[in-house]
Amino acid sequence: MDSNTELLVAWRSGLSGWDALVDRYSRLVWSVPRSFRLSQTDAADVYQCTWLCLAEHLTRLREPERLGVWLVRTATRQSLTVLRTRGREVSYDLWEPASPLPAPDEVAVTNDRQRRLWSALMTLSERCQQLLRIAAHSPELSYAQVADALGMKLGSVGSTRTRCLADLRRKVEGLR
User: Fold this and answer.
1) Which domains are present in the chain?
2) Residue ranges of the RNA polymerase sigma-70 region domain (predicted)?
3) How is 7-73 classified by DSSP, letter by letter?
4) What one-character-per-residue DSSP string does 65-100 give?
5) Separation of alpha carbons 75 and 72, rounded Å
6) How many CB atoms are closer than 10 A to CB 41?
7) pTM, rounded to two decimals
């Protein structure tokens, strides 16, 4: 498999390195806006902007082998920008048939659970937040892809995830 450095050099030379980079990191880049629960349209915008930023900053990348980390950070910044721009509006797809509304008590319980979960998640370290978002929204990613994206050692992904989940569980329980 070609290294990121080799692929970037090939792309700069006009060869097919770009397609290989997109194939390698596409799912990872998509996982970031999905983890922020952006609408499909906003997630697609973040995805495209992330790749555009890479094209614009290609000559300034100092550590091509840490490209996954760079892409996650860029997509995260883009996602946060979209959230700030859009506020907290909820996007409804007008083409989808409307489902029956849940009972008010179900809504209250669900909202309370979500509030406690998000409040607890925001108290975790940045690394735990990123790791748990990727795990929740892109479970198909391998440990190697997650390690590359977050700049972690491959052998520490599972144990770190376990510690982060245990910490999150304790914090959610403390918010009851």
Assistant:
1) 1-89 (1.10.1740.10), 105-176 (1.10.10.10)
2) 21-88
3) HHHHHHTTSTHHHHHHHHHHHHHHHHHHHTT--HHHHHHHHHHHHHHHHHHGGG-S-GGGHHHHHHH
4) GGHHHHHHHHHHHHHHHHHHHHTTPPP--TTSPPPP
5) 5
6) 11
7) 0.53
